[in-house]
Amino acid sequence: MLEHHPPAPSHGRLDGQTRLLLVVNGLFITAGALSGTFLGVYIWKASKNFALLGWFTLIAHVCMALTFWIGGYAVKRGRKRLVLRLGIGASAVFYALVLLLGTRCIPYIWLLGIVQGTANGLFWLAFNVIYFEVTDADNRDRYNGLAGVIGALAGMIAPWCSGFLISRMPAEQGYRIIFMISLGIFVVGVLATFLLRNRRTEGEYEWGLPVRIWRLPHTPWRPVLGALIVQGVRESVFGLMISLLVYIQTGSELRLGNYTLISSAVSFVGFFAVGRWLKPSWRSAGMLAGAAAMTAVIVPFFFGIRYSTMLVFGVVTSLSFPLYAIPMTSTVFDLIGKNESSARQRVEYVVVRELALNAGRIAGMAAFIATVHFSRAPLVLNVLMLVTGSAPLFSWMFMRGTLGNPFKKWAASKTMRLRNS
What is the pTM of this model? Predict the structure, then answer.
């Protein structure tokens, strides 16, 4: 049933629908953390081919972008919950295919990429629209902090359990069990979506908004889209490489699980603290500090990639990522809700946001494939990681006008106090 009236202001609190969305998000992330952490390792063990992993990821990103753009029509027509369920269901189908194909999945890697990209596109499209509808500028940072805490908890527990099972069971049995558990969690996630309300959307779906928005003069969306594109570059490369590098260095799924446990425990603290105490007026400073730390911690890779180096990278990144991610996410959705006109086109603007992210992800993965095609020398890969890993600094440079300058505001307020004294 469609809800016609907008929700009352939250005054910073989370209501029942917001908490339910956290549950749905938590289930989806838990299922992904349980199996997704080891999916790249699973494919790499079967193929020993970096480029193949890159093509799998590239296909998934392309399909995700197309799904966002096409699926936006269904969401605009009031089918948000259906699209959300289809996304979770398609994720279940993906892991069912992995279970069915097993180590014979390599010839069908293109099919797996299509299914995973479509599943992620459907889920995150509907999820982000619902997220915008059930949150507001007062509670958005709080929600993002709690979502990060839940994601960190899932990242602590699920991959460690997966690594323990895989390391204790013969051949592919451990992988099959964790893929089956993920399948079951996705089914529970589908059932949970039936409790979400469906708010009404107005107007017709504007297919051409992603192109039109670039033509608007002096729009705040241009720098924001630039920030999202470079954010996507880092996401794709590091999302593929980090878990794989840890496994290659250790040769152990259990130690990969331990790595994820430690980094996610730190991430838990980071998201809790930033979500609770970072004020909107300090978003710019927080984002800059997080981006700088995330870039600087890549430099030690040039002196040798060891498990200890990866662990330091994981800890520092997990602690600083919330400072970068929460201001970035909250500011973009605040921009969508800045006036009644853009709020009415929330579906289109969510599609625009995701298309920008996926444009960056596609570019980042294309750069990865081209790099490993010509050279897999450690120095070359380190340069690739430093270049793509510095993306958060460029995101901040694009976003600083939208975020505002807290130091300038602080100086102005201090000057005003001096004048009045």
Answer: 0.84
